[in-house]
Amino acid sequence: MPKVPAAQLVLDAAYRCFARNGYRRTTISDIVEEAGMSRPTVYKYVGNKDEAVVKVVESLLERSLTAAQEAAAAADAPEEKILAVLAVKLEVAVRLWQDSPAYAQELLSAATAQAPGLITTYTDGLAELLTAALAGAAPNTAHQAATVLLTFTRGLEDDLRDADAAHRDLATGVRIITRGALDRPAATTA
Questions:
Q1: Which of the listed residues 33, 46, 51, 52 has the most CB atoms within 10 Å of its CB?
Q2: Which pTM does this prediction carry?
Q3: Residue 104 domain-assigned (yes or no)
């Protein structure tokens, strides 16, 4: 089994602290204790608490975007690619909700407050993958459909008490939206 880099161990410890205590109640001392490392080592990898929350969420979103890219590459049909990408996105929310039902939103809000472009960069990357999967649609329709698909998925993330139902609803929504985007000619605007 490969050795986990110290930086990842610190990020994992910070995530556990934020998930357990919330952003506001977590201290660097909590992260130091959870990581089982010295304070200077923790500061080296995550800096202060504000930097730590950004790095934790950034790492989570980077891994998710990579997984979405891999999932899209492994799928064949446009609908399969789209469902694979959005299932990865939904799983991030499911994991956050399962790990921290009380503090998941606080964690994302704190990271966004410290680094406003973080979520935007992530959703832009997903939108590119979705737009590419919808290559058979008119360019404007593909982009609009990608935006609708992301908004739809965000809506599913609002209530994850039943993750299986959210995944079923995601599959249904992807099927409806994708087929609509690919089967209809692009609407013209006057």
A1: 52
A2: 0.87
A3: yes
Give domain status of residue 30, yes or no.
Answer: no
Instruction: In whole angstroms, give the CA distance from residue 156 to residue 169.
Output: 8
134: phi then psi, degrees, rounded to nearest 5: -95, 30
Cβ-Cβ contacts under 8 Å for 181 (sequence gap 6 or more)? 134, 137, 141, 142, 144, 145
Check if the beta carbon of residue 104 is closer than 8 Å to that of residue 121.
no
* Length of the chain (residues): 190
Task: Give the pLDDT of residue 188.
Answer: 46
Say what the pLDDT of residue 184 is: 52
Where residue 135 sits, what CATH number does that domain have? 1.10.357
Tokens 């994991």: give the residue.
95
Q: What is the mean pLDDT of each run of 10 residues along the chain (190 residues)?
A: 87 96 96 96 94 94 96 94 97 93 89 89 96 83 92 92 95 92 57
Whether 95 maps to a domain, the answer reads: yes
Instruction: Let me know if residue 103 belongs to a domain.
Output: yes
pLDDT score for 4: 82
Q: How many domains does the chain contain in total? A: 1
Q: Where are the alpha helices (DSSP H) in the chain?
A: 6-25, 28-35, 39-46, 49-74, 78-99, 104-114, 117-133, 139-156, 163-183
Q: How much is the pLDDT for 186? A: 45
Residue span of the structural domain in which 164 resides: 53-183
